[in-house]
Design brief:
alpha/beta; Rossmann fold; 2 domains; seven-stranded parallel beta sheet; 13 strands; globular
Length: 376
């Protein structure tokens, strides 16, 4: 039985994206997961998947990075994996070096996005260089969407013949059993009752980190200027509040039409309660919340950037606005409200996601891809 190892930095990444495909692979291969220490992860992975904790640092930390590389290399040499796959920038950098040093034949980089795009100056140069090293050490690269593949070639991160997109892309597709649109009306009623939102209210929503780079300033500005009876629901960890425009954030906190909510584990119920998801990010690897919301019958307005532009069929399943442009976002918000256009878009989005991002089909495609790589 051939041996595959998945490496990421933190256990949350495994939980969020990879468990279904790991369980599918474990039907045929010996599968191991490496990530940060997590006492509950093994139970969630099941008996067929092994778990080996390695603390890979986040950010730039030279001493800890060298330690992680050495620990990974020793483990790879001992286990003699046929394939090592890595995702997220730091895990990819460490695991690509370690697996090449350990003479692993197949070194597959699952490239979820480019962290350097959010930086400037020396930080951007260093992060871009690290990305190039990870790609050079890899024997194959799987991008989560075609626009990220094109950007990687354009930016000379990797050559075009080294990279591909599996099926229609995404990190792990959508679990249509969890994001079940048949439960939309029930969940919509429940959540709106919990949040004291009338069924007649139009609800715009956001799910993600509450930070400048997610376009929160533009979202609040556009909502402020919309000047109607709609509501805005912001869901996510407040880890980037210090990056926001203070006046806009204070206005949002004090306005009764804006609801600010912590991150939730049952986001599918909240997507059901929304009429329109808004993701005005400056950059995204893919934008999983778009396809998750769509599976619940909720359309999206997103910035026209790598990732979201691959998912949204503009004016059919959702709308694309200009990045860092509150006026463009405002016009899209007005457009979806005309004649309840958001309902048509939401229905189209649901069908599109079912046909293109069903995680059961994606897992089969990933299994086929692994067979090709292991037999080459």
């Amino acid at each position: 039985m051939k041996k595959i190892c998945y490496v990421v930095t933190i256990s949350l990444t495994i939980r969020a994206f990879f468990i279904p495909q790991l369980q599918k692979l474990a039907e045929i291969y010996d599968v191991t997961v490496i990530c940060s220490t997590d006492n509950k992860l093994q139970y969630q992975l099941g008996d067929k998947i092994k778990y080996f904790p390695v603390d890979i640092p986040r950010g730039i930390a030279l001493k800890e990075t060298i330690k992680a590389i050495r620990e990974l290399e020793a483990f790879f040499r001992r286990e003699k994996f046929d394939m090592v796959q890595y995702s997220t920038p730091n895990a990819a950098f460490c695991a690509s070096i370690a697996s090449k040093s350990a003479n692993i034949k197949v070194r597959n980089y699952h490239l979820m996005g480019y962290r350097y795009l959010g930086e400037k100056g020396v930080a951007r140069f260093i992060l871009k260089m690290l990305e190039k090293i990870s790609c050079k050490n890899s024997t194959s690269i799987e991008c989560v969407c075609n626009s990220n593949l094109r950007l990687g070639v354009q930016e000379k991160i990797f050559p075009v013949n080294k990279a591909t997109v599996v099926w229609n892309g995404s990190t792990g597709g959508v679990d249509l059993k969890k994001f079940d649109c048949n439960k939309r009306e029930r969940w919509r009623t429940e959540i709106r009752k919990e949040l004291d939102i009338s069924e007649k209210d139009i609800l715009f929503g956001f799910a993600g980190r509450i930070t400048k780079d997610k376009g929160i300033n533009e979202l609040i500005q556009a909502f402020l200027e919309l000047k109607n009876e709609s509501k805005l629901l912001l869901i996510g960890p407040p880890e980037g509040i210090n990056t926001l425009d203070t006046k806009l954030w204070n206005w949002a906190k004090e306005n009764e039409s804006v609801l600010i909510h912590d991150a939730v584990s049952d986001i599918e119920r909240y997507f059901a309660a929304m009429d329109v998801l808004i993701l005005p990010s400056y950059r995204e690897g893919f934008g999983n919340v778009i396809i998750e919301a769509a599976a619940m019958g909720t359309t999206a307005i997103c910035t026209n950037i790598q990732g979201p532009s691959d998912i949204i069929v503009d004016s059919t399943t959702g709308l694309l606005c200009n990045v860092k442009d509150a006026n463009s976002l405002l016009e899209c918000m007005k457009t979806v409200l005309k004649n309840q256009y958001y309902k048509e878009l939401g229905s189209n989005a649901e069908n599109y996601v079912k046909n293109n991002y069903d995680n059961t089909i994606l897992c089969e495609k990933i299994l086929e891809r692994k067979r090709v790589l292991l037999e080459s």
